[in-house]
Amino acid sequence: MEKFLVEISARHLHLTDEAVEVLFGAGHTLTCKKMLSQPGQFACEEKVTVVGPRGELKMSVLGPTRKGNQIEVSFTDARALGLVPPVRESGDTAGSCPCKLVGPCGELELEEGVIVAKRHIHMTKADAEKYGVENGQIVAVKVETEGRTVVFGDTVVRVSDSYALAMHIDTDEGNAAGIKGSAEGEIVTL
């Protein structure tokens, strides 16, 4: 089967318009630093300090703004913060971990929003047909690297024609597979 891009998604935040104004000042809008592989998504110049019970981490903000605030960390990051977040798909933050966000102009106490993102593959409808999968399906993906080949189970397929074909994993998962930058993966049967 044809291989696809596997990218490491480092810790980051998604913010609402309201949160951007609290953290960076009234009228502030996010500043694009570089475009990301998913169409319309970008890394911002802005950074926010995420504070947990045990520590704090400075994190990049991703744009554009969203309907809800979401902080995506690895389990290693979560331990440094003193948090035990759930593994969730993006957007599913109900009942997740709280934290405090500190920006240059203000602070925001969040009752929920911190998750470890469930590894996933972004696909268009045409990609899903080619790979014989459908939206929400759970698959296994083999990533071959020198001396650290891994099969990632529990990988959710996310289908939308606004996506570009790529699998996203966190830094812990990327380190486990010995990935430097990006790699290639293929769907396998277990």
Shape: globular
User: Kindly state the mean pLDDT as a whole number?
Assistant: 97
Main sheet: strand order: 1-13-10-12-11-14
Helix content: 10-25%
- What's the number of helices? 4
Largest sheet: 6 strands, mixed, barrel
Return the structural class.
mainly beta
Low-confidence stretches: none
What's the end-to-end separation, in Å?
15 Å
Count of discrete structural domains: 2
Question: What is the string of helix and strand elements?
Answer: EEHEEEEHEEEEHEEEHE
Mind explaining what this structure looks like?
- The chain has two domains: 107 residues, no CATH class; 70 residues, Beta Barrel (Barwin-like endoglucanases).
- β4 and β5 form a beta hairpin.
- The chain has a six-stranded mixed β-barrel with strand order 1-13-10-12-11-14. A six-stranded mixed barrel has the order 2-5-4-8-9-6.
- It is 15% helix and 44% strand.
- With 190 residues, the chain is mainly β.
- The protein is built from four helices and 14 strands.
Attribute tags:
190 residues; Barwin-like endoglucanases; 4 helices; globular; 6-stranded mixed barrel
Can you give me a brief rundown of this structure?
The chain has helices spanning 17-24, 75-81, 125-131, 171-176, and strands at 4-8, 12-14, 32-35, 42-51, 56-63, 70-72, 87-88, 97-102, 107-117, 120-123, 138-143, 150-159, 166-169, 182-188. With 190 residues, it is mainly beta. The chain folds into two domains: 11-117, no CATH class; 119-188, Barwin-like endoglucanases.
